[in-house]
Write a structure and sequence with these properties.
With about 350 residues, this protein is α+β, with helices and mostly antiparallel strands. It has 6 helices and 18 strands. The protein has 2 domains: about 5-65 and about 160-340, 3-Layer(aba) Sandwich (QueA-like); about 65-145, Thrombin, subunit H. The longest helix has 13 residues, at about 315-325. It starts with about 25 loop residues before the first strand and ends with a strand.
Length: about 350
Amino acid sequence: MDKNIFNYELPQELIAQQPLPERSHSRLLVLDKGLGRINHEAFKNIHKYINAGDCLVINDTRVIPAKLLGRKKDTGGKIEFVLLKSVGKDIWEIILKPGRRARPGSRFIFGEGELEAEIVEVVEQGNRLARFYYDGIFEEILDRVGVIPLPPYITGKLDDSERYQTVYSRERGSAAAPTAGLHFTESILKGLLEKGVLIAKVTLHVGLGTFRPVKSEKIEEHEMHSEYYNIDEEAARMINDTKINGGKIIAVGTTSSRVLETVGKSNGTVSPGNGLTDIFIYPGYNFKVVDSLITNFHLPGSTLIMLVSALAGRDNIMDAYQEAVKEKYRFYSFGDAMLIK
């Protein structure tokens, strides 16, 4: 399958650079995947499309201040680390800039010297493994010296870093936010619970691989990045009960979808568990668990637009994106939302 069939034209001014003042004031494009019909809504009315007995599946990961600005210990040269994932005690896989000369043994200092790092190995795609040295609790030091990394297409500074976190974020570990969840407020979630909707929490720690372009001309040749996931017994029970009782599983975001399809069985139920998933979903994939999806608008040619195309059909998605451009929807992380039902 040619990757170019997932491209579309997007005017630069439609890339949202800041979140709206109110989370739920974003727009909502509703796509009926069976009929190909499009409706325009406000996200605050999402409850109209979720029924009692349905199960909303949210990703409770929390973005860590994974961007570290420091200097090389021997020369004082400036360096930027982005933590991707923990691979062992005090060892992280990182991206660093500039990185060509950062060989094993190179040491770096961050903050006022309370955090140091040493490169221990060069790994795939030029990333490094770095061992960190510090006194105290790593997470607390990271909160002091690190900053939240924003996607590469956001050029400004975010005044309130909590706006790049969901209101239900809990499990630290992501380098990027599960942005479909940014539209939800405590009030919306409370209203859904009162309506009789189940809300199941899963975890998938989002890596920067989510922004990595597909370089292979044929998408089947693309090597998907892996990310840590967890789904506990309570969440699995909610999802399975919903399936048994005829309710819909509504995934919030492509990240929640990837967890569900990783642990899903052919009968639509799921098993609790955790580990690494590198599942790559593109047209031709048959969803086992996910019935509906709340998602943002994704980059052209990305694995994310391929995933939503697998659920709704590529032609439907391309028509919906063309409509969203025409109607001047806001795109990407701080942009508007889409419901595929």
